[in-house]
Request: fold
Amino acid sequence: MTTFTAPLIKTQKDRIPWAALLAFAMTGFICVITETLPAGLMPQMAAGLSISTAFAGQMVTAYALGSLLAAIPLTIATKGWRRRKVLLATIIGFLVFNTVTALSSNYWLTMTARFFAGVSAGLAWSLIASYARRMVPVDLQGKALAVAMVGTPIALSLGVPLGTLLGVAMGWRSAFIVMSVLTSGLIVWVLAKVPDYPGQANHERLALRKVFKTPGVRPVLSVVVTWMLAQNILYTYIAPFVAQAGLTSHVDIVLLTFGVAALAAIGVTGRLVDHHLRVAVLASLAVFAGVALLFAWNSTSPAVVYIGVAVWGLTFGGAATLLQTALADTAGNGADVALSMNVVAWNGAIAGGGLLGGVLLETRGVSSFAPVLVLLLAIGFAIAWMAKRHGFKPGSRQGHSFNNGTGL
Reply:
C-alpha cells in the first residue's frame, strides 16, 4: 500500500508547471482536431479523393479503430521507456501521418495514415494523465490534470469549426498542413518545457489482468462506458435532434454553445476535483439525466434546447478530468495501463453511441433518445454511488491511501 500525503509547506516545485501542462493540452487539442476534421470536411475530402461520402466517413472510423487496437498494447510495450520519449513519439506520429493525409491522393494510403494517426492518439491519451499527475504533489494532481485536459473542449468548441472553415476556404489539404505546422511547434515546446521521467522498471510493471482486477478499476470503467454512451448518442446525432426545434441551420451555434459551456466547466472542475471528486461525478451524472428529462418533456422549443445544451456542456466539460483522476488514483502503480483501458472504453463508447443512436434514430426516431439517456445515466449513477470504498471515494483526495495496483 502506497500512501500519498500533501506537503505541509509549498515550495517552488509544488506550483503548477503551466508551460509543461499546456503542452499536454496542445497534444490533446491536436488529438481531437485530427480525429474530427474529416467529419467537418467530408464532402471536400470525398471529392478530392474521388470517393463517396460514405467511404470518406470511414476515415473517422479508421482513426478510432487505431486508437482502440493500439492503446493497451503500446502502453504496455513502452512502460519502460522514458516518458518524454514516448510523448515525442506520439507527437511525431501526428506530424508524419497528418502530412501524409495532406499530400495523399490515394484513398487507401489516406486510410492507412488515418489508422496510424489513431494509433498515436491511443498512446497519447493513455500517457497524458499519468504524466501530468507525476509533475505535481498529490494535492495538485486534479488541478494539473484539468489544465492538461483543457485542449479537448477548446478543440470541440473552437478548433473544429475553425478547421472546417479553413478547409472550406482554402481546401481540405490546407487544414491538415496547418495541423502538421502546429505539431512541429509542439515538438519544440515539449523539448523546451516538459520535464523527463524514467519509465517503470520490470519489477514495477503490473500485468493487464492484475490492473483490471484492482478494486475500483472496473466500476470506474463502467461509469466511463455508460456516461460516454449517453454522451455520444446525443452528440453524434445532434443535427436530427435539434431539427425538432427548427434549428437545422444552426447546428454550428448549438455545438458552439455546448463547447463553450464545456470549456467553462474545466475551470470549475479544477477547483472541485481534488476535494469533491465523488460529489462532482454524481452531480454531473444527475444533472445530465435531468437535461435528458427536460428534453423528453420539451425538445421542440429552441430556448429549451439551447439551455439544455449549455447545461449538458457544463456536465461534460470535466468528465475526462474526473474519470481519469478516479481511475489513476484507484490503479496506483498500474495507472498507465488503467488509463489505456480508459482509452479503449472511451472510444468504444463513442463507436457504440454512434451505432446505438443510429439504430434508435432509424427504428424509433429522435424522441427515443431521452429515455435511453436517462436509463444509461441512472446505471452510471448507481455504479458510482456504490463505488464509495473503491473508485469514487468521498472527501479530499489528500486524505486517501491510493492503491499501489496490487489489489490490496
